[in-house]
């Protein structure tokens, strides 16, 4: 196997292992703080998500799209890039520490932006959690900066596998907290003493464990730093490392991320009013985590080689080959994404039970997961279309159709809030906003495809749409068979929703039935994609 093939397989394996352990981490955390309709859980979730949101605004796109090429270029210098990379890492550490300290000083307004409809007590609890979680900004940033430097120097494994350490540390810590306090007793009322003061020890333990995991994964990269061959020393002389050029290259990507975070803040603000009355922030992010598992494994893992080939053809000016690449990528990703969407939609209740502590909470959370899954196929097509623009060096057009998607999603979230904000409808607010997010993704991919057609001419989307329709026809009997298994085992009152381990088994059984019937249906329809995807998966599994 080639070095590139080994690296790709290693990264894919690390990503998959990290995602699976991330699911386990969320299962343990939900057992500690509760799932749907849990005020304390939503307070912690919003506070713990803040560092991610802030880090993504200041870093995502700049590191991967801009700094890695710069590091590769600096590495060709006589000193191997030591001088410039030392300046860069020193600058990054100073900026990240400053942002983390500023965020802690502004903890209250930052939490309020995402949780303005929390009760005063719940908002105070979220702010107390935020003081423990916001230092993660520094360690997230340093992890990405060190990791991308390792990647640029050809050391791929640590960056791909280090998040596993985060998950292991967090799982161990949360299990210890569960043993000390018990999941059923970690409710909002239990966080306050009779005199109205908060249990700062419990808050510190939960927030500290979450932050310790990020510290651990960053420390792993420091241990492997010697493999880069670089000797980094603090260097505060930052002139001459090309910051102005970096800013120009990353501008559109930064604005795109800013738009995405503004939309997320608006959705979370509307959703915060449902906390303690129905699925809210904790359910939302757990459902998103389940949704991202098939997206990561299918779209990111399988789609990336198509992007590499497409980029080569675009660079050579071979537009006909690019159009062929687009069709192949959509059909390959589509055949698997339709299967994944059908299987998880049918198994939504057992899947939700894994992340909730009761049958009723699982049934309330399942519609949120279904709302996200509606958008899995459009998001996969969007991946192909957006990266085609990137292959031609165009980051400006993706920014504008991302703005369009954000406007549509915000409008649908507003309508959902107006319709479902009454007490009896509030439990359905999360599902409605998630479905709106999926509909906005569909609108985005339609606009993006039209814009790409204006650039490249006819894309052959008719053939791709016919293939997606063929996959959907095959998925209908498969989904019916999977749902029949769910009903035969008792449905909402059956063993699949009794406990978390039976729920895992139930998901596996339903998934296997759906996959088997789906493959048989594709064979009956003589879908040419079936042979291609079988060969692709066989090659991936060998690696």
Automatic annotation (TrEMBL):
Keywords, ordered alphabetically: Cell membrane, Cell shape, Membrane, Peptidoglycan synthesis, Transmembrane, Transmembrane helix
Cellular component per GO, a single term: plasma membrane
Localization per Swiss-Prot or TrEMBL: Cell membrane
Residues making up the signal peptide according to the UniProt record: none
Keyword Plastid: no
Primary site of residence: membrane
GO molecular function ontology, one term from the record: lipid-linked peptidoglycan transporter activity
Classification via Pfam families: MurJ (PF03023)
GO process terms (BP): lipid translocation; peptidoglycan biosynthetic process; regulation of cell shape
The organism's place on the tree of life at top rank: Bacteria
Name of the featured protein: Murein biosynthesis integral membrane protein MurJ
């Amino acid at each position: 196997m080639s070095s590139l093939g080994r690296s790709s397989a290693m990264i894919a394996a690390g990503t998959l292992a990290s995602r699976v352990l991330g699911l386990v981490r969320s299962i343990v955390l939900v057992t500690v703080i509760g799932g749907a309709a849990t005020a304390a859980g939503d307070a912690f979730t919003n506070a713990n998500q803040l560092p991610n949101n802030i880090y993504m605004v200041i870093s995502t796109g700049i590191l991967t799209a801009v700094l890695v090429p710069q590091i590769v270029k600096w590495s060709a210098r006589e000193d191997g890039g030591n001088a410039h990379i030392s300046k860069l890492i020193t600058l990054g550490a100073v900026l990240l520490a400053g942002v983390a300290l500023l965020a802690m000083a502004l903890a209250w307004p930052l939490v309020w932006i995402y949780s303005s409809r929390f009760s005063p007590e719940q908002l105070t609890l979220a702010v107390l959690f935020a003081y423990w979680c916001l230092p993660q900004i520094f360690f997230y940033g340093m992890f990405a900066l060190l990791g991308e430097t390792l990647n640029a120097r050809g050391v791929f494994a640590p960056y791909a596998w280090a998040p596993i350490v985060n998950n292991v540390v967090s799982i161990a810590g949360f299990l210890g907290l569960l043993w000390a306090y018990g999941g059923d007793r970690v409710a909002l009322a239990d966080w306050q003493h009779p005199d109205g003061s908060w249990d700062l020890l419990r808050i510190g333990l939960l927030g500290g464990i979450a932050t310790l995991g990020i510290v651990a994964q960053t420390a792993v990269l420091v241990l492997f730093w010697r493999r880069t061959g670089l000797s980094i020393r603090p260097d505060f002389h930052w002139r001459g490392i090309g910051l102005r050029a970096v800013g120009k290259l990353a501008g559109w990507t930064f604005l795109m991320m800013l738009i995405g975070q503004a939309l997320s803040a608006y959705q979370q603000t509307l959703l915060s009013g449902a906390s303690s009355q129905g699925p809210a922030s904790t359910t939302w992010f757990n459902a998103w985590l389940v949704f991202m598992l098939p997206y990561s494994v299918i779209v990111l893992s399988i789609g990336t080689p198509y992007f590499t080939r497409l980029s080569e053809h675009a660079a050579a000016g071979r537009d006909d080959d690019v159009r062929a690449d687009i069709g192949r990528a959509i059909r390959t990703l589509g055949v698997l994404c339709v299967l994944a969407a059908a299987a998880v939609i049918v198994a939504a209740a057992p899947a939700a039970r894994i992340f909730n502590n009761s049958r009723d909470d699982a049934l309330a959370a399942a519609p949120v997961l279904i709302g996200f899954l509606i958008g899995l196929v459009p998001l996969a097509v969007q991946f192909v279309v957006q990266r085609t623009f990137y292959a031609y060096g165009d980051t400006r057009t993706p920014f504008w159709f991302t703005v369009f998607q954000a406007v549509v999603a915000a409008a649908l979230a507003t309508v959902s809030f107006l319709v479902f904000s009454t007490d009896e409808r509030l439990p359905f607010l999360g599902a409605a906003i998630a479905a709106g997010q999926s509909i906005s993704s569909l609108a985005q991919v339609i606009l993006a495809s039209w814009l790409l057609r204006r650039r490249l001419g006819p894309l052959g989307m008719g053939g791709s749409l016919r293939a997606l329709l063929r996959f959907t026809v095959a998925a209908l009997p498969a989904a019916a068979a999977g749902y029949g298994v769910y009903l035969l085992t008792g449905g909402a009152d059956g063993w699949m929703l009794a406990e978390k381990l039976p729920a895992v088994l139930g998901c596996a059984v339903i998934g296997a039935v759906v996959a088997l019937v789906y493959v048989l249906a594709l064979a009956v329809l003589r879908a040419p994609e079936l042979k291609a995807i079988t060969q692709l998966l066989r090659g991936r599994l060998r690696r």
